[in-house]
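Posting for a labmate who doesn't have an account.
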Amino acid sequence: METQSISTGTSGPEPEAGEEWLGDAEGEVRSLLVPAEMHGWRLDRALVALVQGFSRSWLQQLVADGAVTLRGRACTKSATKVSAGDACAVELRPTPQAMAFVPEPMALAVVHEDEHLLVIDKPAGLVVHPAAGHWSGTMLNGLLAHHAAAAQLPRAGIVHRLDKDTSGLMLVAKSRAAMDALVRAIAAREVNRQYLALGQGAWRGEAQREVDLAIGRDPQNRLRMAGLRTGGKPAQSTLRLLDGNDQACLVACKLHTGRTHQIRVHMASLGHPLVGDAVYGGRRLWGMQRQALHAAHLRLLHPVGGQPLSFWREPPADFSEALKTGGLHYNPPNPGDGLIG
């Protein structure tokens, strides 16, 4: 596979020191001698000092994989003590991180495209950006194959993300001017983003509710987020009931901030975890095998031309079927309109 360099920007998963090295398909073997001053050191500590520019964790992985020989024999324990004069050889194999930023042709559902802007309807199940466990097959890989200029942009032009199992509309910049403008517009809350969410239980309270609840890592479970009364990052959402019954509620959600899992956390905080969202207490109902969340509407000014743009996408088949089975209905808005003003 041909590799392609890409600017990773200043946010999102970054390669550790040295992990941007790609090498070739066979790797590079470096022969080393342990100097006197490193006598008695752990093998991994010595390798960090002798193989400049590579992270300790990556070198430890090479040791565990059998890519390091010490005194002529494979050594798979990083804690092994080395002696002055020991001969050591390291096969510097390309890491999954290093191979992540490569073009992979895929069918992207393009809603809008011009020289500066892409709007994509992301299917549920597609990971947006490479990360641990998903080093290939991501939207970023597809964008690199879709247009060559993506390789020159931070994160291939991705300015916001959707969770793997959330479907719907995403903005992607195709030029640096567009990317900078979109980042500013999102930070200034000038991009109107609205979602459809299917929550558990009968809706309680006013038909439209403003949720202002900071979000941060759950102190009891670092793998999920939580609404926090102290600490965390500010998070605001407007939630509006569209339809409901004793079992569930269909809710339009307007984001004013863009925190990780914001809608999922805010809905759960109100006692309405999303159907299918096991992380936040939701149950699988009516065939939904993922969190029932769909990014349905985007409204903004074109980042370069300034003309008003509005995009709407119906929820996918699994979401629509769950609504039907659950006895819920919604009326799509008029073209150009959202569900919340």
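Reply:
Got it, the structure tokens are right above this. The first helix runs from residue 43 to 50.
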